[in-house]
Design goal:
Helices cover 36% and strands 18% of the residues. The N and C termini lie far apart (40 Å). This is DUF2314 domain-containing protein.
Length: 244
């Protein structure tokens, strides 16, 4: 896989820089949604994408990537935009972008956009007709206030656990009662389930895994504990669960 480095040189508009910072601060909510989307039998997302800036010499282009994966530190995805001037990256390329280089994230449910912080900053400077044309080009409905999860725009500390997290708690408990070793096993990429749920911010499942013997000192392939991953992503309740 080829690595294309994202450039954190801010856009000319300070509002875009603020929007990008907000996107990085709330990235965990994007990943939580994608994490649960992967486990659905019937998909619920129309779109899930991350934006970063790609650089070749003096040329900088801001591109979106889809088919996103995330290991708690690095975003991996497939480029979907056709660059205007860049020659080293093309649509369909798989690229890696560090979390602190992410410029924006976006997912859509039933045509309603969540995230899109830089998009909101751009739309704020458009007139009514220009906004309509912009939104038609995307094929999505963009609210005037950025949504984080399930139609909610709020202080992340006040947002609820993901509905699928709560719905799966009983099934996971039943599975662990049959085989407690699942709480300690690592997946094919070297992560324990405790790592995965901590990265996704699923505090109720973290509590459950710890109760069944998951090792809070286990380190991910990049050398971090579940708690350290949660701290980096701002999952306060997961960190608290580690010390309950």
């Amino acid at each position: 896989m080829r690595r294309v480095r994202a450039n954190l040189v801010p856009h000319d508009d300070p509002a875009i820089e603020v929007a990008s910072r907000r996107a990085r601060e709330t990235f965990g909510y994007f990943w939580r949604e994608v994490w649960w989307e992967r486990r659905r039998i019937v998909g619920g997302l129309d779109l899930a994408a991350v934006k970063a800036a790609f650089v070749e010499g003096d040329a900088v282009e801001h591109l979106w990537v889809v088919d996103v994966d995330f290991d708690g530190l690095t975003v991996t995805g497939t480029v979907v935009n056709e660059p205007l001037d860049l020659t080293g990256v093309r649509p369909g390329d798989r690229v890696d972008v560090e979390l602190d280089e992410v410029e924006d994230w976006l997912f859509a449910v039933d045509g309603l956009a969540h995230g899109g912080f830089t998009i909101a900053a751009i739309r704020a400077g458009l007139g009514r007709l220009a906004r309509r044309r912009h939104d038609r080009a995307w094929g999505l409905r963009f609210p005037d206030e950025v949504l984080l999860v399930h139609g909610q725009s709020a202080d992340p500390a006040r947002l609820d656990d993901h509905p699928l997290c709560l719905a799966s708690r009983a099934d996971l408990a039943a599975t662990l009662q049959v085989d407690r070793s699942l709480a300690m096993e690592r997946d094919e990429d070297g992560f324990t389930l405790l790592h995965r749920e901590a990265i996704a911010g699923d505090a109720p499942l973290v509590v459950l895994l710890l109760a069944f013997g998951a090792d809070p000192a286990a380190r991910s392939p990049r050398g971090l504990t579940a708690e350290e991953h949660a701290e980096r992503l701002g999952w306060t309740r997961v960190v608290e669960a580690m010390h309950a």
